[in-house]
Amino acid sequence: MTALPSALEAGDTSPRRIVVVNAGIGTSSSSRRLADRIAQKALDQLTVQRVPATVSVIDLGPLAGEISHAIVSGHPQGELLAAIQTLAAADGAVVATPVYKAGISGLLKSFVDILDNDLLIATPIALAATAGTARHALVIDDQLRPLFAFMRAMPVPTSVFAAPEDWADPTLGRRIDRTAIELATLVASSIRSAITGQGWDRYQHTWGGNARPDRPQEVDFDTDLMRLATGGAAMPGTSTVTGSSAMTDRGAGAA
C-alpha cells in the first residue's frame, strides 16, 4: 500500500491549521470537550510526524446573534466573518455538535447555511456529536455526514459519538485516537491544497465569496447566459430560466 507523502517529504514545512467548530453552547459543554480531545490527539499525531500545526476554535454560541442576522441579510460581518475566514483557511477541521430532539444543533446548521458552497472543498473534517442518550448515535451518519458531503468536504471515515456513559469507557478513547489519526494523516498530506490547487477551476464558485480569496475571480464565458449576453445562441436542447423562478439562494445548486 502506498502511503500519502508527508509534509517533509513534499518539502512543505508551513504550519497546518486545524479549526474546531463547536456548536455546544455551555461554558464547559460536552461537545467542546469532545472536540478538544480529538483536536489535541490530531495535534499529537502531527507532532509525531514532525509536521508543525496549530489549532483554532470557533465557538458558535457567542456568534448566535450574528449568525441569525446573516441568515436574513445574507452578509456575515464582524466576528462571524472573521470566523468564516478562519475556517476557509483551514487544512482540516473538527466539527462537534450536541444532539437536540433527534437532530443536530440548529445553530450549527444555520452556520453552515451561510457558508459559501465552495468554502470547504476537499477539507478533511472529523465529525463528532454528544447527546444524553445513545439512541441518538446515528445522527452523525444520518445528518452530519450528508451535510458535509454536500459541502464537498472530506469527512474522515471514523466519527465519534459520546453519551454520558461513554466518557468512562475506553472504547471512546480508541475511537478518538482513530479519528485523530485519520484527520492528521490527511492534514499532513496537504490533500486539500493538492485537490484545490489542481482542480479549483472545475468547481462552481460563489462570486466574491470567502473561499480561497487568494485566487483571482474568473468569469466562465462558456455558459448559455454569457453566450446570449455576447450575441450568441444557447446550446441546443437547453433553456434559460429568468424572473422569479431563477434559483438565487446561496445553498442552491452545488456541483
Automatic annotation (TrEMBL):
Organism domain of life: Bacteria
Residues annotated as transmembrane: none
Ranges for region Disordered: 231-255
Polar residues composition bias: residue spans: 237-247
Keyword Iron-sulfur appears in the UniProt entry: no
Residues covered by the NADPH-dependent FMN reductase-like domain: 17-167
Keyword Oxidoreductase tagged: yes
InterPro entries per record: CE1759_FMN_reduct, Flavoprotein-like_sf, FMN_Rdtase-like_dom, NAD(P)H-dep_FMN_reductase
Gene3D superfamilies given in the database record: 3.40.50.360
UniProt KW keywords: Flavoprotein, FMN, Oxidoreductase
Molecular-function GO terms, alphabetical: oxidoreductase activity
Protein name (database record): NAD(P)H-dependent oxidoreductase
